[in-house]
Amino acid sequence: MTGPKVFETPGALAGQEGTQLGPTEWLLIDQDRVNGFADVTGDHQWIHVDVERAKDGPFGGTIAHGYLTMSLVNFFLPQLIEVQGFTHAVNVGADRLRFLAPVKVGSRIRGVGEIVTVEEIKGAIQSVVRVTVEIEGSDKPACVVDTISRYFP
Q1: Mean pLDDT (whole number) for 130-153
Q2: What are residue 146's phi and psi, to 5 degrees?
Q3: Which residues of the chain form beta strands (DSSP E)?
Q4: Which letter does DSSP use for residue 8 in this model?
Q5: How many domains does the chain have?
Q6: CATH number, domain at 21?
């Protein structure tokens, strides 16, 4: 891990489009995490939680929910970027979410990022950071999503 890229103010993001962020540390995706996500969301589809049945399934075992993988972007973002010097910030949402490869239970994932856009909107600085969730040993990422943050100086 290289540590987060630090920006002392939201305004310091200006002109940083194309800046590469990360990678983060690897994170193990274990069955307990998948089961916990299933409990919270009510999504107990067998491909995620039935270890025995999933052995005969298309992936040879259980896989993480796509939305679990996406939710871990919030875990990776502070490891990728740190913006300081604002009164408050909001998560505006996400664009262009794609699930490109399943995350098998027992795999390790990490995040890498890129600052895509920075603009002033309604007295705030808004940035779009594209986060790619990589799977250790895989040529395809698990997930790519553009996260949108707004910082109020």
Answers
A1: 97
A2: -95, 115
A3: 5-7, 20-21, 27-28, 81-83, 88-99, 108-121, 124-135, 143-152
A4: S
A5: 1
A6: 3.10.129.10
